[in-house]
Amino acid sequence: DKDLQGKTALVTGAASGIGKAVALLYAQHGAKVMLSDVDEAQGQQVAEAINAAGGSARFFKADVGDAAQCQQLVQETVSAFGSLDMACNNAGIGGELNMTADYSLEGWQHIINVNLNSVFYCLKYELEVMLKQGAGSIVNMASILGQVGTPGSPGYVSAKHGMVGLTQTAAIEYAPAGIRINAVGPGYIDTPLLNLLSAEVKQQLIGLHPIGRLGKAEEVAELVIWLSSEKASFVTGSYYPVDGGYLAK
Ligand code: NAD
């Protein structure tokens, strides 16, 4: 189904995991895709794979923790493809794993910068373009940990909760301008992000999902593409879990 033909999508963190799956699925639906990541080699490879399959993709290296680079990324997207219709603000890291009293000051600043400030920076510059166009759809990559807490990850949890509030606020602000903004909340998904966890912890995490396994990046991408598309024309300011039943318990 080439329902996104003629549209341009921007994906951050597109070199790996969920972002890569989102970029590939946007392309399958016919969209032109700007991929961005700090990992240039992997990111270029994904863009080349899309082009080799007959799609239209480019890669631009940007660190989403840097406002100026986010601004440049949005500018590059518009100059390469002529518009910015859809964005998936997905790049993120796991960050320090420590209980709150032991969490380092540097670790806190870093995770808030990469996982939360980044979403504000990207939104700010994406909205500038979409406001001029009078249309657009943005999906922010939150987490189940944007709704509930977990011991040992206060920075990550706070960044994801913050992102959900920002999503709701911006959605209210820009709904009259024809721009929809939603958040997606994956459960634990089998991507390289989980490499920071031991095999034993991974096994325990499976037990937290009633479906009895970790999620796949492609299963998250399906929801992102749906929210981005006109099929979701009445959906804004929403948080959608895609979590194998994690939050239902
Ligand atoms: P991943 O590690 O496979 O991919 C993340 C990508 O982001 C990598 O390619 C990395 O290079 C890039 N990145 C990291 N820091 C960056 C920066 N400063 N600027 C630009 N790019 C940067 O991880 P993933 O599992 O695909 O995670 C993607 C998003 O999904 C993250 O926001 C993560 O918090 C969220 N998420 C993941 C899970 C999970 O279980 N895997 C669950 C819920 C939410």
Secondary-structure blueprint:
Layout: E1 8-12, H1 17-28, E2 32-37, H2 40-52, E3 57-61, H3 67-81, E4 86-89, H4 105-133, E5 136-141, H5 154-174, E6 179-186, H6 199-206, H7 217-228, E7 239-242
Parallel strand pairs: 1-2, 1-4, 2-3, 4-5, 5-6, 6-7
Helix pairs in contact: 1-7, 3-4, 4-5
Order of helices and strands: EHEHEHEHEHEHHE
User: Largest beta sheet, briefly?
Assistant: 7 strands, parallel
The kinds of small molecule bound in this structure are:
nicotinamide-adenine-dinucleotide
Percent of residues in beta strands: 15-25%
Roughly how much helix do the residues carry, as a percent range?
A: 40-55%
**How many separate domains make up the residues?**
1
The assembly state of the depicted protein chains is single chain
Classify the fold: give the CATH topology.
Rossmann fold
Class of secondary structure makeup: alpha/beta
Radius of gyration from CA coordinates: 17 Å
Please state the second-level CATH architecture: 3-Layer(aba) Sandwich
CATH classification class = Alpha Beta
Number of helix segments?
A: 7
GO molecular function: oxidoreductase activity
Protein name: Short-chain dehydrogenase
Keywords: Oxidoreductase
Family: Belongs to the short-chain dehydrogenases/reductases (SDR) family.
